[in-house]
């Protein structure tokens, strides 16, 4: 117990120092890298609290892909933070102090970590989901059961949010293209980063295989469509960084991504509509196999996880392509 | 206290020594390249020793195999990351530290 509290205190300390360092960093590249560190420490905290699914997402999205997207975006803009005018420092500081005080005051009402008397532990709904979901769904990982089946609506909403964000970024980045000079890019990459190229080429199949494992294994272990999509996207982003946009677009062109993104959302919503057509409610997977509801649940969850994975991967890679090929008017 | 426990304890201790010296090196070494060297040791040797120590403590075969896979992954990626850092720094024109000649100051 002491070891647990010590580990938690150390991680929270690192988190605090990182947060202060982010606010003090004037170079936005430094801030982006520290943001990645912040996410990684947060993910470790989630692991300590046994929330491995959330930790997985935080590590993959926060520490992995969003850091890369931030840095790619910074390459297009000014990477120094503008200095705040003095007359704005005092009111902004006041707002920050008041907000912090409010949050600390609110945190006094929170139950202690692991308190057996907290509402989360005593409320009957916890028992309902943990016990009955095993009888209803037969899915060992309750998190996947809750996200994909009980809360299927919410997850569909989240996928639509990601899709909308992707559409927004693509529309914003439609502007002037960077003049493509593939020969120069290739010559540069070949001369400079030979070790990185060999290693990333070797790792590429394993990254994609791991993404598939995370996608198909989400019912039993941590992971699912969301994390799998991010890992899949990260694989292609790594390949782009090492071999250039031209090489990767021969395998996965932007046109394909623009098609795959909506297909994921439509697959998810389509499963919902088919269960309605079969006579059940929206996303009521039992209808997929009326004779054996738990097999229907497994099928439905697998289908929507594939939909989530498709959309997430397509949106991540498409945003990265859009940022990389956008030219700058100087 | 079996032989395995002793072996894994020795490995864990050795790994921790590398981790601590790596941290000290990061703070104390004079320039970017020497610091990269310290962190590289912590990343590759320290992490490998600690994970190998944990393999000996693994409760079942499945965990042991996973840990070995992580060791292999780290042995490939962390030297690559160190190399990439140092390479990028050299491209950027970061100078290699040299003993200051003027010792009086």
Task: Tell me what the structure shows.
The complex is a heterodimer of chains A (330) and B (105). Chain A is an all-alpha fold and 330 residues long. Chain A has 13 helices and no strands. In chain A, helix 3 (52-74) runs parallel beside helix 11 (225-251) and helix 10 packs across helix 11 (225-251). The longest helix of chain A has 33 residues, at 293-325. With 105 residues, chain B is mostly helical. Chain B has three helices and no strands. Chain B has helices at residues 3-28, 32-57, 61-91. The mean pLDDT of chain B is 88. Chain A binds chain B through residues 192-193, 195-196, 199, 202-203, and chain B through 76-77, 80, 83-84, 87, 91.
Core attributes:
heterodimer; A: 330 residues; B: mainly alpha; 79% helix; elongated
Low-confidence parts of chain A: none
How far is the first residue's CA from the last residue's CA of chain A?
Answer: 58 Å
Biggest interface, chains and residues, is: A-B, 7 and 7 residues
- Structural class by SSE content of chain B: mainly alpha
Name the helicity range of chain B.
over 70%
Instruction: Profile the largest sheet of chain B.
Output: none
| Strand residue percentage of chain A | under 5%
Can you lay out the helices and strands and say which pair or pack?
The complex is a heterodimer of chains A (330) and B (105).
Chain A: H1 2-24, H2 28-48, H3 52-74, H4 86-107, H5 119-122, H6 124-137, H7 142-150, H8 152-172, H9 182-192, H10 194-216, H11 225-251, H12 254-277, H13 293-325
Chain B: H1 3-28, H2 32-57, H3 61-91
